[in-house]
Structure formats: structure tokens, C-alpha cells
Specification:
Helix 3 packs parallel to helix 5, helix 3 crosses helix 6 and helix 7 packs across helix 10. The strands form three sheets. Strands 2-1-9-8-7 form a five-stranded antiparallel sheet, with helices on both faces. It is globular and about 60 Å long. Helices cover 47% and strands 14% of the residues. Among the domains are: 155 residues, Beta-lactamase, CATH 3.40.710; 68 residues. It has 353 residues and is α+β, with helices and mostly antiparallel strands. The longest helix has 25 residues.
Length: 353
């Protein structure tokens, strides 16, 4: 009888341990949420985080259903919309687009400094836009298919409530500087580039006044920070992290593009490289990660999919944005800590290390 009781007791303990292990495995979202809440509390401004493990379809949504300004992370939906237009076979990615003065805008990339009239293939422009975050390349691509087409297609894969409107990067500058003075909306692209040569701060406002021949009293606002705040309130080039994450999931599952163009996106979203930047800094080096960052005054994002191969069956979708903080140092530190939390909560559990 004692032996039977002991066996029953041992069996009961085994069942309890098994169930406890299963609960722990199922509750990774709770553990990760605790990490994210702690990081948010210790970081200036606000954080939004969306993480979804595709194997079990469980997700963490932390302030993820509101609109976040994407900055250059908007280039992923632009690329998808352009590829959808071209994969029908009626147009080739080798089609050439001629650079115009009205395409040139400040930011990353070298296209802004090239001579007008030079032709670039659509494929090379997408590569520049994603790999180098070239704003002028993005402008060329939006012009190639039309802003209305980009937004119509984005509405299909982001949802009508998942975003507002995508614009080119010239319109971003017009909207921001136009808050300082309406005449800024009539500047040429080269004048916009000239203004952007000044550091982003009081010097940028002085540069704008100089180009427009204005006195300080002519301005509607005093600082560039106020102008950006007014622009962000328009919620252009913004999306919910839930919608953006769903777009990434559908991308890696092959639901948005042909296999050829899906691989094209993987390649130019840095599938084969490791940059140790932001989220990626604390991910395992052997973990594959397709991703795109975005940075603008007081705003930062990092979006991607960890292990997107095999149509995303073992993938982890990550979409993180921050606002009202130093977009480089403070956002970078917060994103690194989120990457570390994802590694500890999900990747080590999955044997990635």
C-alpha cells in the first residue's frame, strides 16, 4: 500500500511538473510583457511593441493598436506595393526610371547627388531604398507607380484602419517646414536639400528663413521641434504595429508577393547580414533577421521577422516604435533591451543559442 501511495504521489508530481512546464511555455507573452513594461518605465517617452510567434500564433501587443509614425520603416510597404505592381508581368523590374530634380531630397543614400537624367532600374531603386534607406530612391519609386496606387495597395495589406496615408519624402519636408511658414511648401527640391544641410535644430530654422528671406517674426512657430510635433499630429506615414506586423507575417508566408519577389525582399531586408544595431544587437548572431529601421526627430522604429525562412513557420514578427525621446541614443538602448528580452524569452527557449 505504501509503495502504491508513493507511486501515485510520484505520478501526481510528474503531472504537476508537466502542466507547469506547459503553462510556462504557453505564457511567454506574460514574461515578455513584464520585460517590456520595465523597459518602458525606464525609458523616456513611450514605447509600442508587437511580437508574434508564428508557430503558435500567440502575440504580445503593447500599445500596438494605435498609430505610430514609421519614418523610413514606411519603405517596406512602399516596396511591397511597387513589387505587386510589377509582378503581373506587364512591367519588368529592369524598367528604367529617369532621375528628375523633383525626386531629389535629403536623407540617407547617394542618389540625391547624382546628375539629373540618369536612369535607374526599379530593382536597383528598391535595393537602394531598403539597404541604404535612400529617400530619393523612394521618391522615384512612388512616382513610378503613383502615390494613389501605393496607398490603394497598402490599404489591402495594412487595412483601412491600420494606417492613414503614405506620401513621398518631399511631402514630408513640405509638411514640416510648412508649419514654420506656408511659403516653404513652394521651395524646390534642391532648396529643400540646401535647408537640410543645416543641423536639425535652431540652425535648420535659420537656414529655412535664409532661403525664404524671412525675419524671425514672420514664422508661425519658433522651433523645428514644434513643427515636427504639428506634422506628427497629422498621422501621415503612420501605422499600427498590429497592422504592420500582419503585413510582415503575410510577406514571409508568401501571401503578398511571388516566391521570386519574396526572396528579393528578404535579400534587400538584410537576410544574410548581421549589423548588431538596435533590436539585432542582442539577437543571436546565427538567427536570421529581415528588418527595416526608421528614424526621425523624436521618433524611431525597428520592424522585422526573426527566422523568416520556411514561409515563416518558425518566424517571430517584431514591430517596435518609440516617440518623444532621443531617437538615436535612448531609442537604440531601449530597442537593444527589447531584443535581449526576446532572446531570453523566445529564442533561447527555441534552442537558437
Amino acid at each position: 500500500m505504501n509503495r502504491l501511495a508513493a507511486l501515485c504521489r510520484a505520478s501526481l508530481i510528474a503531472v504537476i511538473l508537466l502542466n507547469t512546464s506547459a503553462v510556462r511555455g504557453a505564457d511567454w507573452t506574460d514574461t515578455l510583457r513584464e520585460h517590456v513594461e520595465r523597459i518602458d518605465e525606464q525609458t523616456p517617452g513611450r514605447l509600442g511593441v508587437y511580437v508574434k510567434r508564428l508557430a503558435d500564433q500567440k502575440s504580445l501587443e503593447y500599445q500596438a493598436d494605435r498609430l505610430w509614425y514609421l519614418s523610413s520603416a514606411v519603405k517596406v510597404p512602399i516596396a511591397i506595393a511597387v513589387l505587386q505592381e510589377f509582378q503581373s508581368g506587364k512591367r519588368s523590374l529592369e524598367e528604367k526610371i529617369v532621375l528628375k530634380a523633383t525626386d531629389k531630397i535629403d536623407g540617407s543614400g547617394a542618389l540625391v547627388w547624382q546628375d539629373e537624367g540618369r536612369a535607374h532600374s526599379v530593382a536597383s531603386l528598391i535595393k537602394r531604398m531598403l539597404m541604404e534607406s535612400d529617400n530619393t530612391a523612394a521618391n522615384l519609386l512612388v512616382r513610378a507607380v503613383g502615390e494613389d496606387t501605393v496607398n490603394r495597395r497598402a490599404r489591402d495589406f495594412l487595412g483601412s484602419k491600420g494606417f492613414r496615408k503614405i506620401t513621398d519624402f518631399t511631402q514630408v519636408r513640405y509638411a514640416v517646414y510648412g508649419e514654420l511658414h506656408p511659403a516653404a511648401r513652394k521651395l524646390t527640391n534642391l532648396e529643400l536639400v540646401q535647408v537640410a544641410a543645416a543641423p536639425l535644430g535652431p540652425e535648420r530654422v535659420v537656414a529655412l528663413r535664409r532661403v525664404l528671406s524671412l525675419e524671425p517674426s514672420d514664422l508661425k512657430l519658433r522651433t523645428i521641434e514644434e513643427a515636427y510635433a504639428k506634422y506628427y499630429a497629422l498621422q501621415l506615414n503612420s501605422a499600427t504595429l498590429v497592422a504592420y506586423g500582419a503585413m510582415l507575417e503575410n510577406l514571409v508566408r508568401g501571401k503578398l508577393l511571388s516566391p521570386e519577389h519574396t526572396q528579393f525582399m528578404f535579400t534587400h531586408m538584410k537576410y544574410g547580414s548581421y549589423d548588431a544595431y538596435r533590436l539585432e544587437a542582442d539577437l543571436p548572431k546565427e538567427a536570421r533577421f529581415i528588418h527595416k529601421t526608421g528614424t526621425q526627430l523624436g521618433r524611431a522604429c525597428h520592424m522585422g521577422v526573426i527566422n523568416p525562412q520556411d514561409q515563416g513557420q518558425n518566424g517571430i514578427v517584431v514591430a517596435v516604435c518609440a516617440e518623444d525621446l532621443d531617437e538615436d541614443r535612448e531609442a537604440g538602448q531601449a530597442f537593444e533591451r527589447i531584443g535581449q528580452a526576446i532572446t531570453q524569452t523566445l529564442l533561447r527557449e527555441n534552442g537558437a543559442r
